[in-house]
Specification:
CATH topology of chain B: Double Stranded RNA Binding Domain
Largest sheet of chain A: 4 strands, mixed
Number of domains of chain A: 1
Strand content of chain B: 25-35%
Oligomer: heterodimer
Strand order of the largest sheet of chain A: 2-1-3-4
Largest sheet of chain B: 5 strands, mixed
Strand content of chain A: 15-25%
Helix content of chain A: 40-55%
CATH superfamily of chain A: Glutaredoxin
Shape of chain A: globular
Radius of gyration of chain A: 15 Å
CATH architecture of chain A: 3-Layer(aba) Sandwich
CATH superfamily of chain B: Ribosome hibernation promotion factor-like
Number of strands of chain A: 4
Number of strands of chain B: 5
CATH class of chain B: Alpha Beta
Radius of gyration of chain B: 17 Å
Chain lengths: 144, 146
Amino acid sequence: MKIFITLLMTFSLIFAAEIDEFAAEVNYLRDYKTAIQAAKEQNKMVMLVVVGDYCPWCKKFERKTLKSSEVMAQADENFVGLVIDKYKDKGNYPKAFFSPLIPAVFFIDPTSEKSLLDTVAYMKKDDFLENMDDALSLFEQKGK
Amino acid sequence: MKSLFLALLFSASLFAASLYTLDNVHSLNLYFSSDANFLTKEKKEELKSMLTKKLEKAGFVFGETDADIFVVKVSALEIEDSLALHLEVGLGEEVITKRKGNIETFSYTYLESKFIEGFDPYEDTREALNILVDAFINAHKDDNEE
């Protein structure tokens, strides 16, 4: 049985899409509803990252910014990370987050499911960390 | 005024970024290719020397084994009385693809080009190559800063 599970896991890793591999590496979820539920339980915001498999700026944003240790630590501590493919996951997330430009990030209040702050385009690590701080401040203000 | 300054700063930093990733690019080999008649052997050597010096000044090293290939291509096309110039600057290297069997291939991991009209072909080429190489240096700096 152990061998079967190991083989199954190996095969699922081999055939996993790049977005799944990325999600596993940075510990993000792939399902919108699951992320909202988790965020409510943990009293955190959802950090929704919208990307596309055809988009080189998205790949660079993932590689250089989202995978950086500082951003990963901040995301892990204060947000529920969620990554979706703009087109391939269409229908599985609200239309409000169907961003015309990608990469896009929405910092979502899980209760209202509204974005408190959003960013569009590739951002460098330090700029993005500032946005994460801003989003956290907005979330804290809303809670008061 | 402060927001204008910040907006300018932000746009400048975005402008420097390229969609390619140039982390840890250090040693280069210059490959210069041109079919343009106005570029004599001497002019080609002049351009190669100018580009090498510029890149060395930016910290790149030439002459090492297995260096990445810094490709510069100049093409010219006569259209009636005008001369159209196509200039390309790229970085070529051996990469492992995600294809079945992890096929290795030569690939451009950076490529920018300019298509211009050459009034003074040599000077215009020189100027455009300077701009393209500056863009490469800035993109490299942007990717490698801490």
